Amino acid sequence: MLGDTAKTTPAPGQTSVVIVEPEPLTPPPAAAALTVTVGPAPANTTVPAPVLPSTATLENGKKKLAYPYAIRSRSQFLYYNTYDGVRDYLRDRYPDRPTDFYNVSTLEDYYRQYVSDPMQKTYLDAFVENIRERSELPPERARIAVSLIQHIPYAPTNRTLYPYEVLYYDMGKCEDKSILMAYILSKMGYGTALFLYYPEHHMALGLKCPKQYSTAGSGYCFVETTNPAIMTYSNGTYVGVGKLTSKPEIIRISDGNSFDQIAEEYTDAQSYEAVINSAVWNDNAMYLDTFNYNQFGYLREKYGLFDLDFVKVP
Length: 314
Description:
alpha+beta, 17% strand, four-stranded antiparallel sheet
């Protein structure tokens, strides 16, 4: 979530319904309380003009990571090389957080800095190309990208991460992973935005889509980024917060195409909601009838959802 201030390892056993750490229910009165920094803040808070190190310096400390994803009931891995040198370059270039964090007009420029670094682009382009090679169909590439980023472990970080850093550390909070997803999908040609829920201290991706499937008629569909979830499903329960009830502020990141094939996800999200609503609680266990239990199993496999503790009624 946006207000996390302690770096931890990903919490085990997270599900697609309970997906975040506790946060205050209302935003703090001062923008400074939302400041996200890592370690000591740089002495000079002005972002310096880019001075690119040599390739040898940037590509120091190579490590190969495997990122899981699920596409149409098939679980696979994508492999990508990360470098300590690129991480070192980015960690000294954190943009100033706006003084007026509640002014959306200031946030667009702020968040766009995270997706526009020219050196970062050089290395992230290889990641995007790796996804493209997984399918000849643009919609399937987008689905792979969404699942891949959702499967990156959720963990609080004590500042906003660059997209490359999320891949390097193989973890991130809602804000970090939403920016990464916006970057990847924008490079695939889609219109993207960030959904910022102030009262719930949560961020998700807004993916340009047909208006009838979009959030509040905005033209952007809700995409959860913290954990595997079906696109357009926004009715999850957040620990310490409950459900998202506020109207999100929309921070536009990129113009681009609409994901017009999202009707499939929209239908599946409705089926998933029906399954959750059909569950009967008994002695702290959730029970489903045979039909809904099988339906949940199908959706879980299709999207790589994390398991819930459902028990099938005999």
